[in-house]
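User: I'm writing a short methods note and want a consistent example. For Transcriptional regulator, AraC family, putative, I'll paste the sequence; you return only the structure tokens, no commentary, since I'll be parsing the reply automatically.
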Amino acid sequence: MQQIGIVIYDDAEVLDFAGPYEVFATAARLCEVTPWCVSLISETITVMARGGFSVQSHFTLDDHPPLDVLLVSGGVHTQAIRNPALLCAIRRAGEPAGWVTSVCTGAFLLAKAGLLSNEKVTTHWEDLAELRAGFPDLDVHSEVRWVEDGNRLTSAGISAGIDMSLHLVERLHSRELAERTARQMDYAWQQ
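Assistant:
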């Protein structure tokens, strides 16, 4: 069974992690044999996401299983990007992972952790210029929902993470499962 870990932190955008979580959990539920286990990972078990939404993670940065897929959520990342323990844990989890992904401003954390360097990437439209300025080696794309470059997959803001996650379900399993998942979620998948 593959392990999918979604990294969250204080002020993470709720839909950035809840949307992908729902995609992977729904896809797993639709399979006869569960292809993966999805979990939330954070520095401390309880995280205060945006809007004062308290979230309890499954694992901490120090005790999660080895990941096949690392997904870093976005949000107000100004404190997270200055957190060496978080960045080091992201790097440790991402280096052996088969897929390294982010939603929205999670791309900043992947880049700062050294997991994005020359790849094609995207982020929320409000943050494109800042990502280009802060990480000039990245090939930052606008006007797209998600970008795949090798085993790196980044999405634009918030709801685009659902589209990216459906694409990842297709890559990890099948297009048929991705389409069934979108239908089950009553979601109009933007490919």
